[in-house]
Amino acid sequence: MDERGIPSGPPATVEGAPCDFRKTRTIGTSRLDHALTGLDRDGDGRAWMHLTGDGSAETGIRLWAGEGYGWLQVFTGGPVDPGRRRKALAVEPMTCPPNAFVTAEDLLVLEPGEEVTHTWGIKAS
Predict the structure, then answer these.
(1) What tens digit of pLDDT does each residue of 66-103 get?
(2) C-alpha–C-alpha distance, residues 45 and 113, integer Å
(3) Spatial separation of the C-alpha atoms in residues 91 and 107, rounded to whole Å
(4) Could you give the CA distance from residue 76 to residue 83 in angstroms, rounded to a whole number?
(5) Do 25 and 7 meet the contact criterion of CB atoms below 8 Å apart?
(6) Under 8 Å CB-to-CB from 112, ≥6 apart: which residues?
(7) pTM
(8) What is the reported pLDDT for 57?
(9) What is the DSSP secondary-structure string of the chain?
(10) 59 pLDDT exceeds 90?
């Protein structure tokens, strides 16, 4: 991203980056405002995000995004005012990355009368 937080280049790998959460680990002080793509999918075509409070795979919240969602926006609230910062984690399934109206990357364009439906869901355990 550039200094204004606008995507300014092609997607980069998360390998070894602070935003690499493909293996379970604590978010801690990580500051996230990332659009993630290249999502791994299960046999039903769903990409999963798992969030637990204690690292246990038995309890937590899981969000899944169906095949129509090629991106997940993840945000820890770093830029918000200090009294509200780090109170929650936002995870949003997206069909295209931020700034897609400018780049046209993965942008869905519907003609009059056309429609599209995608599915996502949340599971608590």
Answers:
(1) 999 999 999 988 777 777 777 778 999 999 998 899 88
(2) 27
(3) 19
(4) 13
(5) no
(6) none
(7) 0.83
(8) 67
(9) --TTS---SS----TTSTT--SS----TT---EEEE-S----TTS-EEEEE-SSS-SSSSEEEEE-TT--EEEEE--TTS-TTTTTS--EEEEESS-TTHHHH-TT-----TT------EEEEE-
(10) no
